[in-house]
């Protein structure tokens, strides 16, 4: 095969992915390359891909072994090029916002159709996650990266995959079969539903894989299901994340679950690149504009109209939903206290400074309206806050008899926060809905 290597578009643990062009036709494809001596995983992937043909599996285009000019023997696997990158890239391009439930359902259905197909062939993928799912031009999701795949009947293939996406029985080293792929589908749905979050947010497999595997395998816990999902979506996830593999639903059963069965299976809206569409031929100008980019996945995308409803829903959810624990370490917007310093005047002769603050009175301790208060320069004690572009100050005198019982509740970036007032040290409470 006569082809020309282009720039790098991805990296794996043992291989590098390049953009490539077929010299006679100018067609663009992807080539996954590794040194022949280190290509066991890549050769396994070639064996599986060459036996598969499905619109929900990345397409196989061949392979070759070539001696480079340096004399090193390289194994090259040729595959379909999907210009929108991975599902993880899709989430990242949305700024880490979670995907709306309809889009999650569409991608999940497509993944299950791919999973149905490979399971019918007796193949276990073993490493399903957002990074190993590629998105086509029309928004369809395709399973990729079969380097960890195995035959379901094999008793000799080692257990493989990404620890945080492993099923409990896999983490314990017992068995890796079709049910383990279903568990990974559940973890991937959590990825989509949390904007790229980990299914085990307090565990990191890159820094402490042993602890991660122990927690997954022996703690008796399951990944937390996002509280804002619909009841149908929650039930679907529960069917995927049963710790007992014999209780997990199969891909065929999940396809008939109400979460997917009632879905109008439109493809997700096609995304557009800022400068041009991704090339399918060497003659298209898009490839020349992108040739200097080291990572094609880092491109900014224009938001499609199909996300408008999802964004509106996201804003509404943020007003009434608090997900996860408060982030105490993010303290740039916390309150500060000003007390009387030595040498300060006790009178109020100085011109007062106008500050934004809550309207408080002895008859009405509601702070729902913003107003102007004068901040004196005398010996008063003030609670000062800065939240975003809003500063506020509340005087002890203004609060009067209600001083120790009042709670000042303000919204910082749509997260309601509560503070006790007029105490020597102002400690944040747990987030409270206004």
Automatic annotation (TrEMBL):
Q: Which UniProt keywords apply?
A: ATP-binding, Kinase, Nucleotide-binding, Serine/threonine-protein kinase, Transferase
GO terms of molecular function: ATP binding; protein serine/threonine kinase activity
Give residue spans, biased composition: Basic and acidic residues: 340-356
Keyword Nucleotide-binding recorded: yes
| UniProt-listed Pfam families | Pkinase
Q: Provide the Protein kinase domain boundaries.
A: 3-260
TM stretches of this protein: none
Question: Hey, which family's this protein in?
Answer: Belongs to the protein kinase superfamily.
The protein, known as: Mitogen-activated protein kinase kinase kinase 2-like
Give the organism, scientific name. Answer: Cucumis melo var. makuwa (Oriental melon)
């Amino acid at each position: 095969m006569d082809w020309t290597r282009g720039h790098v578009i991805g990296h794996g643990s043992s291989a590098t992915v390049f953009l490539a062009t077929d010299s006679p036709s100018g067609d663009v494809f992807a080539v996954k390359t590794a040194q022949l001596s280190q290509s066991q995983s890549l050769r396994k992937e070639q064996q599986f891909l060459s036996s598969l043909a499905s619109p929900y599996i990345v397409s196989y285009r061949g392979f070759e072994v070539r001696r480079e000019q340096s004399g090193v023997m390289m194994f090259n696997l040729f595959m379909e090029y999907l210009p929108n990158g991975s599902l993880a890239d899709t989430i990242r391009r949305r700024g880490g916002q979670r995907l709306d439930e309809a889009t999650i359902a569409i991608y999940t259905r497509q993944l299950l159709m791919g999973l149905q197909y490979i399971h019918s062939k007796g193949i276990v993928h073993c490493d399903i996650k957002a990074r190993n799912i590629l998105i086509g031009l029309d928004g369809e999701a395709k399973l990729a990266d079969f380097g960890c795949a195995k035959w379901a009947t094999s008793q000799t293939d080692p257990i493989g995959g990404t620890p945080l996406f492993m099923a409990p029985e896999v983490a314990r080293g017992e068995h890796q079969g079709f049910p383990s792929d279903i568990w990974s589908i559940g973890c991937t749905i959590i990825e989509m539903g949390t904007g790229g979050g980990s299914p085990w947010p307090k565990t990191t497999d890159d820094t402490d894989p042993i602890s991660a595997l122990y927690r997954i395998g022996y703690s008796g816990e399951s990944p937390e299901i996002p509280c804002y999902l619909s009841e149908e979506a929650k039930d679907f996830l529960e069917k995927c994340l049963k710790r007992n593999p014999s209780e997990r639903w199969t891909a065929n059963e999940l396809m008939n679950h109400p979460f997917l069965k009632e879905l109008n299976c439109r493809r997700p809206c096609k995304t557009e690149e800022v400068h041009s569409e991704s090339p399918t031929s060497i003659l298209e100008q898009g490839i020349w504009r992108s040739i200097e980019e080291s990572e094609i996945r880092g491109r900014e995308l224009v938001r499609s109209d199909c996300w408008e409803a999802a964004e509106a829903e996201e804003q509404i959810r943020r007003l009434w939903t608090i997900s996860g624990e408060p982030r105490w370490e993010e303290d740039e917007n916390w309150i500060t206290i000003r007390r009387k310093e030595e040498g300060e005047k006790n009178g109020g002769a100085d011109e007062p400074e106008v500050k934004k603050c809550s309207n408080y009175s002895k008859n009405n301790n509601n702070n729902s309206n913003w107003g102007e208060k004068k901040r004196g320069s005398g010996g008063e004690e003030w609670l000062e806050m800065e939240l975003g572009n809003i500063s506020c100050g509340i005087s002890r005198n203004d609060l009067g008899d209600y001083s120790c019982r009042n709670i000042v509740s303000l919204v910082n970036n749509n997260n309601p926060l509560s503070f006790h007032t007029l105490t020597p040290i102002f400690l944040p409470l747990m987030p409270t809905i206004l």
